[in-house]
């Protein structure tokens, strides 16, 4: 880490002051390959977990029978109720405690059953809990309905991704749209992989949480991209920074904002997850709380360490960005490529190229005219190419 130097005799501000002012100089872009490798390793590991371990689908997706046992009327534990159901031949998918005090109840979810099997399991649970069978409510969900829910969730996700890509493409540029969508996919894979790792159920609350964190991650990414566009809008008119340096400055200038929004979002969700679920035993909240907690952290990470650096990688493939970066390097090394040689007049093509280059506004470099990118090759071809290039430059000016 390096920080911007202050004048002689001035007190150097601490790291928190630099963060608040956007004056830090963390080299996110310069070290981006390290973040790529770290993310690739984690994504690959979680992908293996998802393929081998799979997901625990809730009753709403897999179909089955759900038993609601009033726990305030019994001394039996959730484990006792689950054991009784298993002894009756049930394949228990999950169980959780809902509510507290006298309103506390056990929710036991079991796969699809016939009518007779469902009745016998209900009787076994009632006998273990010491309550009447009428006190246990039973809900059935068919697998067909679960498939419909899954299909609608995937459609909603697809529509969201398309709209996001179109919006960012129009508001910013193609490269940023691709980077934003890649970051969202990264967030989805990591969050889903973590769910597979811990074995939490996938419920409708989980899907709602997934869409919520995608919106949250997108917000953070758009904030960074807006600053990136501002920093690089006049980039070709100067020789002070490369494209990567302009993007890195944008990340540092929005870093405190990203940290603040992440903390504000994560802290209440952490309270919901660790206090509401861990201490109070409100099991119905854990599916939503976990996906929000993991997704917000992953979303903040991807917007800072992945999305903006990906834009740099794609931008540096453009010829105009490579030429600009080379001119910045030449200026810093003391070689001024815009000065004419000592002998002979400057080539008209070189003057035309540099003039056009300096007048361009780099908002969307993909819109640059093709002849601007081809001009250096014409100017450097043969001893007699100068006159032909000069004529080409004049022709372009007349147009």
TrEMBL record:
InterPro entries: SecD/SecF_arch_bac (IPR022813), SecD/SecF_bac (IPR022645), SecD/SecF_CS (IPR022646), SecD_SecF_C (IPR048634), SecD_SecF_C_bact (IPR055344), SecF_bac (IPR005665). Residues 326-399 are annotated as: Disordered. The keyword Transmembrane helix applies. It comes from the Bacteria. Residues 129-316 form the Protein export membrane protein SecD/SecF C-terminal domain. It is a multi-pass membrane protein. This is Protein-export membrane protein SecF.
